[in-house]
Amino acid sequence: MIDNQTEEAVKSDGFATIEKSLLEAVVVRDTLSIKEVNLFKAVNLWATNECGRQGLTTDGKIKRRVLGESIVKGIRFQVMTQDEFGKVVIDSNTLTPEEVIAFFKYYSSALNSPLEFLESARSGFRAYDIHRCGRFQSVRDYQWGYGRGTADCIDLTVDKDIMLHGLCLFGSVSNDYSVTLTIKQAGISLALASKAGTFSSKLLQYVNGNYYGFEILFDSSVECNKNTRYAIEAITSGPVSWQGIEGTSIVVCSGVTFTFRNNANSTNGTVVREGQFPEILFSVLP
User: Fold this and answer.
1) Among 1.10.275.10, 3.40.190.10, 2.60.120.820, 3.30.930.10, what is the CATH number of 127-284?
2) N or C: which end of the chain has fewer CB within 10 A?
3) pLDDT in tens, 73-86
4) For residue 262, which phi and psi values (nearest 5 degrees)?
5) pTM to 2 decimals?
6) Looking at the domain that runs over 7-107, which CATH code has it been given?
């Protein structure tokens, strides 16, 4: 059962009555294929049912005691979106107030010490499952510059739930670039993920023409929900770079429809038709 665990099986009525040892084996399994928020819902339902079976009050502290730390710490809360965490996890009262505060610091990139929970996506999203969505029909060696304090931005929406692992940016031959890359849900100031550093440009293969650029992978993949608008921003300093041209607003890749829109905060020239972000690195959620 564990090796073939699916989201449908976890959602089934029978899952809420399985033995605790099997529940723990499922939760800690790295290859489990399920959205983390749905796994938590199933675990919370199991704890509620178990409290009822034992004649216990179903408050958060007792549910956590019934579950045990191994199961609670096996949930990868950091893989969830802030919206999922706020709407589902907090209401369960399973986490302590201190843990809830720490998670909100994590979502706002203000956490100073690591959380005692796993933050990586389960290995069902392996490297060879990562797809590359290219948004340009052509790329070219062009004098794309970076002004002080300016940003390259684009908005995207998908029609299926995906895990966003990172993005590619353009560079030029044998040059380094300092970049701060951020993704947010449109209209919300808190970042879902951010990555800053210095990246070396190299020749990357691209279906519509190879280009010089670099990949930026987030430390924790971001779950992007269907029909939700997200804003991507890159603040870059470095030499002039290549650029993409003939971009389209709708791109279908690996069964997922990506819709790109101009972002009003893009002050360095990136729009749907041209500019930065040649490829989006993602996995399709089951």
Assistant:
1) 2.60.120.820
2) N
3) 999 998 888 888 99
4) -65, 145
5) 0.59
6) 1.25.40
